[in-house]
Amino acid sequence: MLVTRSLLFVLMFAVAVLPVYGGEATEVESLLKRPIIDPKLPLEEVREYAAARVPPVPEVKSVSEWENYAERIRRETLDRVVFRGEAARWRDAETKVEWLETIEGGPGYRIKKLRYEALPGLWIPALLYEPENLQGRVPVMLNVNGHAATGKTTDYKQIRCINLAKRGMLALNPEWLGMGQLRTDGYLHYRMNQLDLCGTSGLAPFYLAMQRGLDLLLSLEHADPSRVGVAGLSGGGWQTIIISSLDPRVTLANPVAGYSSLLTRARFPSDLGDSEQTPADFATTTEYSVLTAMMAPRPTLLTYNANDDCCFRSSHALPPLLQAAEPIFNLYGKPANLRSHVNHDPGTHNFELDNRQQFYKLVGDHFYQGESGFNATEIPCEAEVKDAEALFVEIAENNADFHSLAKALAENLPRDRELPTNQSDADTWRTAKRAVLAELVRTKQPDLQAIPSGEQTIGQTHAKFWRFRIGGAWSVPAVELSRGEVTETILLLADGGRAAAAAEAEELLENGGRVLAVDPFYFGESKIMGRDFLLALLLSAVGDRPLGLQATQVAGISRWAAEQFPQQPVRLVAIGHRASLYTLVAAALETKAIGSVELRGSLGSLKEVIERNISVREAPELFCFGLLEQFDIAQLAALVAPRQVRFIEPSQRARDELGGLKAWYAVHEVDFDPLP
Predict the structure, then answer these.
(1) Which residues of the chain form CATH 3.40.50.1820?
(2) Span 360-406, pLDDT tens digits
(3) d(CA 181, CA 606)
(4) What CA–CA distance (Å, rounded) separates 149 from 181?
(5) What CA–CA distance (Å, rounded) separates 304 from 318?
(6) Rounded distance, CA 466 to CA 607, Å?
(7) Is 3.40.50.1820 the CATH number for 417-667?
(8) Predicted TM-score (pTM) of this structure
(9) Helices and strands in the chain: count of H runs, count of E runs
(10) How far is Cα 420 from Cα 602, in angstroms, rounded to an integer?
(11) HSE (CB half, 13 Å, CA atoms) of 489?
(12) How does DSSP classify residue 620?
C-alpha cells in the first residue's frame, strides 16, 4: 500500500507540472526552459552595479571646504532631482493656507485645524498643537510620519505633539501623502512615477508638503526661527533627513528608523523603501550618508531599533551613517551634536516611550539649554488622544494627487509631436531625436562577450545556449534555436520571458527563422529574486534607466547576431507591451544591425500607462523619466524608418495614434503600412 501511495503521488506531481495546454512539453518549450544562469545572479549583478555608483562622503580638511561642497549638493539635488519639469513652477507658485475650527486639546494647549497647499490644488490636512498663553518666541516642530494607515491621528504621533505643546512649543501635525485622510489610490507612492514619465519629479509633492509645512510654522507670530525641529518615524524618518539636510532652516532633527545608506540598501532589500526613497538620479548628486553628514553641526539624533521588524535594523543601518557623519561634526568641533540611540524596548519598528523620551532630551538640551525646569520624562496624556472623527479636516473631493497631476501633464505631451513632411527635414529630425532618446534612456554601447553554455538537439530542433556578458556588469541568457534551412535571424523577446514564448518561437522556426530567444534585464531568467521593482528603481536612482539597460542589451546582442549571421537581416519580434517598448527603443537607436521590428501587443501610446493607472511596481521600465515629454510610441516608431515596424493585431488606440505613420513612411519613399 505504501508503494502504491508513493507512486500515485509521483504521478499526480508529474501531471501537475505538465503544461496546461497540451500534456508533454514541446521540444521548443523544453529547450527554452533550460537554465543558463544562476537564479541569484541577476540580484547580485544589480547590487554590485548600483553600489559602485553610490557617491561617498568626500574627505575634506576644513569647514569652509565642507560648506562649499554641502551648498553645491543642496543646490544640485533640489534643481536636478526634486524640482524638475513642472515642479520648478510648483516651487515658486503662490499657495494658500486656510485655518478652520479650533478645538479643545487638553490642559495647557488647543488644537487648530487647517489645510495648506503643497502645490496648487493639492491640499494637506493638518493640525497645529498650540500652547495657551503664548508669549515671545518659542520653538516650532514639524512632526512627520510614515506608513501608518491612521495618519495624523496615530496615537504615538498625537502623544508626541501633545507633549511638545505642553512644553511650550508649536507642533504641526500634517497628513502624509497616501496615509490617513489621504489614503486613496491616487496617492499610492508607486504612482508618483507617473509624474516621472511626464518629465516632472514625482518626488516634488513629498518635498513641497514638508517645505510648505515649515513655511507655515515660521509664519506664526510666536515662531522662533533659530529653534526649528523635525522628527518622525519610518517614512517620517525619511522625510526628516530629506527636509532637514536640504533646508538649512531646520536646526534640529530626529529621524527614527527612516533610512539607511544606498550601499546598505543594496545589500539589505528590506531597506529599499518606496519610490520616493529612490527617486530618479538621486545618487548622481547625493546619497543618505552624505545627507546625514550635511546635518553638521546642527543637533541630530539618529534613532534605530535593535529588532526592527520592518526595515532599517540598527545593526546594519546605523554604523555606516555614523561613520560618514562623525568626521564632519568633528570638523566643526561639535561631536556631541551628533547623537544616536538604539531602542531595545520594544526594539521593533516604533516611536514609543523610550524613543520619544530620547527625542525630548535632545529638544531640552538644545532648545531649552540652561533652563533647569525642562524635564525629558514624558507627560502622561493618553486620555487626551482623540479619534479620527474629532481630528478630521475638511478637504475638497477633487484634491490633486499623483494620478490626476500626471493625467493633466500628459494631455499636452509629447511637446514636439509633429513629424517632418520632406526627406531632408526627416533626416535632420531623426539625427537630433536619436541623440535626445539616447540621453533620456541612458543607453550605452558596452563591450559584449558571447559565452557558449552548451548545445542540445531535441527532435528536429537544435539549440545553442548563450550567456552574453555585457559591459562587464550584466549577464543576459539566450537560447539560439534552428531547424532546417534558415532564411533570417530573429531576436525573440517577451514580457513573460523566453520560456513563455514557445508558441511564437515554433511559428518563427517553421517559417525558416533562426530564433535567438533573449531574456534581458528584469525578464524571464534575468528576473531579480525578491523586491525586484525596488531594485529597478535603485538602478534609476544611480543614474541609469531600466528601459535603457534593456535596450542596450537588445541592441548589443543584435549587433553580435548581425556579425555572426551577416547573410540574413536581424528582425526583432516582441511580445507584450513592455517588451515592445524596449524593443522599439533599441531599434530606434541601433540603425545598422536591426533590419525590422514586429510588435505584438504594443501600447498605442505611452499615455495608456497613465490612463490605465499602472504603477511602477507592475512595470518599472515604463516610467523612464521624461520619456513621454519627448516621445510617444509614434515618434519612437518614426525613428526606425525607413526600416519596417509592424504592429500585429493593434488595438483601436494604436490605430488612432499610429495612423499617421503611413504618411511618414511615404516621406522616405517606402510604401509600407505599419498597421495591418
Answers:
(1) 52-408, 417-667
(2) 999 999 999 988 889 999 999 999 999 999 999 999 999 999 999 99
(3) 31
(4) 9
(5) 7
(6) 36
(7) yes
(8) 0.94
(9) 24, 17
(10) 24
(11) 21
(12) G
